[in-house]
Amino acid sequence: xxxxxxxxxxxxxxxxxxxxxxxSLGGAILGATVVAGILTLYELxxxxxxxxxxxxxxxxxxxxEWTLFSYYCGSLDTPARCSGPVxxxxxxxxxxxxxSTCYDANGAVSDCGNTSTTVSAVTLGAANGTKRxxxxxxxxxxxxxx
Length: 146
What we know:
Number of domains: 1
Radius of gyration: 33 Å
Oligomer: single chain
C-alpha cells in the first residue's frame, strides 16, 4: 500500500509541473504577440504620419511664398500686381492649414508688407496633427524683386 501512495503523489506533482510549464509558455507567447502588435501599430502610425508630414511641409512652404510675396509687394515702386492684401492660401482640400506671422527686430508681431520694420517670419503648416514650420529671415534682403 505504501508503494501505491507514493506513486499517486508523484503523478500529482508531475501534473502540476506540466501545468506550470504550459502556462509559462503560453504567457511568453502572449507577451511576444502583444509586443509584435504594438510594433506593428507604431509602423502603421509612422507611415500615416509621413503623408501628413509632407502635407504640412508643403503648407508651410506655401506660407513662405505668401510671406515673400507680401513683403515684396510692400516694397515695390509700382505695385500693379499688388492690388491689396492677399489672403493666406486656403488648403482645405488637402486637409492642411497654414499660418504666417511676421516679426520686427524686437520680436513683436508686425505687418508682413511693412518692409521698414519686418525682419523675420515664421510659417506653420499643419495637417491632421502633424506640424512643420519654416523661419524666414528678411534681414539684408533687397528692397525689390531680384
